[in-house]
Amino acid sequence: MDWQTTADAVPASIVTEARAASLAGRAPATGAWREGDAVGDRRFVSIGEVPLESGQSLPAARIAYEQWGTLSPARDNAVLVLHALTGDSHVVGPAGPAHPSAGWWPGIVGPGLAIDTDRWFVVAPNVLGGCQGSTGPASLAPDRSEWGIRFPFLTIRDQVRAQIAFARELGIERFAAVIGGSMGAMHVLEWAIMAPEAVERIAVLAAPATTSADQIALNSVQIEAIRTDPAFRGGEFYDAPDGDGPTQGLALARRMAMLNYRTASELNQRFDRSWQSDLDPLGGDGRFAVESYLDFHGNKFTRRFDANSYIVLTQAMNSHDIGRGRGGAGVALARIQAQSLVLGIDSDRYFPLTGQVEIAAGLGHSVHGPTPVLVESEYGHDAFLIEDDAVGAALAGLLAA
User: Fold this and answer.
1) Which string of b and e fits 322-338 if b means at least 16 CB within 10 Å?
2) How many other CB atoms sit within 10 Å of the CB of residue 272?
3) How far, in Å, CA of 255 to CA of 73, rounded?
4) Separation of alpha carbons 182 and 188, rounded Å
5) Dihedral sign (CA 97, 99, 101, 104)
6) By the 8 A CB rule, do 315 and 223 touch?
7) Buried b (16+ CB within 10 A) or exposed e, 18-35
8) Max Cα–Cα distance, the chain, nearest Å
């Protein structure tokens, strides 16, 4: 549930006329990567059938991924980087025909950076249920039609099961580190519990041990924003021409989410009560600058994401509870043996610091003690994508441990 692109994960700013013009034209019915589209830096691995917690299974699943660096002969330098809700495998690299946005962590992953690709072999998969190459609702089902609303319900544990199968196909039996933020950090926790023998270190950035009622409530209104768009058509919109897809509902969901990822102080400081143009927003057909900012990023989002995937992945986040069936979160945390880093953000109003405090207190092999590493930032939840110096220093410390 975060920006996950370089262009979006920057301090909020006035949307210029030139930037607004960059979205001219009718948006496609889905922003998903489709068969026949440019592949870019993606690679693909088939993982076969994936059994799900619901008792269903997903047949013939595929994972799209990207990689950087070189795997050592001993295969002991692999680092798994897991993205957040609206991210994908494009952690590093420019935007282009195959990648609608530039990489989302260019200040963290690369030669000489915190996750040094001269030292580490870095792998980043697109999550199961996503829309940038891995099997998801926009993918073709066995009947050669899009899965759409037929796509099965997924949990965070289901997605990790798919990631474990993905690692097996790559021939990686143990990761030197598994690292993720927000939804990706939920996956990290499950990796450490479900496959402890495959994880040496973990980094949990800006996520809780359990999705709370408040967070589920915030997620639920975003889902309804999509479902109530008449163009959603019950999830069967893939044959719609450009401009006739559920872009209004998806853009509205994105705008709602943005208000959770940033802070009131940042928005007030950046925009105050400024106007977008010379037209008065008080009955004069004008708009406040902050309204145009939200509109621009909501509309931009529809060009790189899929409405059904947004629902599937948001529901997976709602399922997150590491204590479910394990005797509670405390018991589950005590089972984690990997060396750990837990990082929280003081201004995060989506996944508040209390969640990271609980995780850090419950882990017995932390590299920083029983309290989380604290990042002080005005950027709220998105700070793990923006505050490269603080986040990078924490990750470098973990990888050196």
Assistant:
1) bebeeeebeebbeebbb
2) 10
3) 46
4) 10
5) negative
6) yes
7) eeeeeeeeebbbbbbbbe
8) 68
Task: Give me the residue label for tokens 């600058």.
Answer: 289
Rg (CA), the chain: 20
CA distance 305 to 3: 12
The whole-angstrom distance between residue 279's C-alpha and the CA centroid of its chain comes to: 37
DSSP state of 109: E
Cβ atoms of residues 358 and 389 within 8 Å: no
DSSP string, 179-247: EEETHHHHHHHHHHHH-GGGBSEEEEES--SB--HHHHHHHHHHHHHHHTSGGGGGG--TTPPTT-SSH
Q: Under a CB-based contact definition with an 8 Å cutoff, are residues 169 and 52 in contact?
A: no
Residue positions annotated with a catalytic role: 182, 348, 381
Give tens-digit pLDDT for 221-278: 999 999 999 999 999 999 999 999 999 999 999 999 988 888 878 877 877 777 677 7
Residues 6 or more apart in contact with residue 167 via CB below 8 angstroms: 80, 123, 173, 175, 198
Burial status of residue 50 (CB atoms within 10 A of its CB: 0-12, 13-18, 19 or more):
buried
In the sheet that holds 201-205, the strands lie side by side as 43-51, 57-68, 121-125, 78-82, 177-181, 201-205, 339-345, 373-375
74 has a pLDDT exceeding 60: yes
pLDDT of residue 2: 34
SS3 170: helix
| Percent of the chain that is helix, strand, coil (3-state, to 5) | 35, 15, 50
pLDDT digits (tens, 9 = 90+) for 183-221: 999 999 999 999 999 999 999 999 999 999 999 999 999
With beta carbons less than 8 A apart as the criterion, state whether 84 and 184 touch: yes
- The candidate with the shortest Cα–Cα distance to 32, out of 336, 325, 313, 307, is 307
CA pair distance 242, 310, nearest whole angstrom = 19
Token output for 28: 């496609």
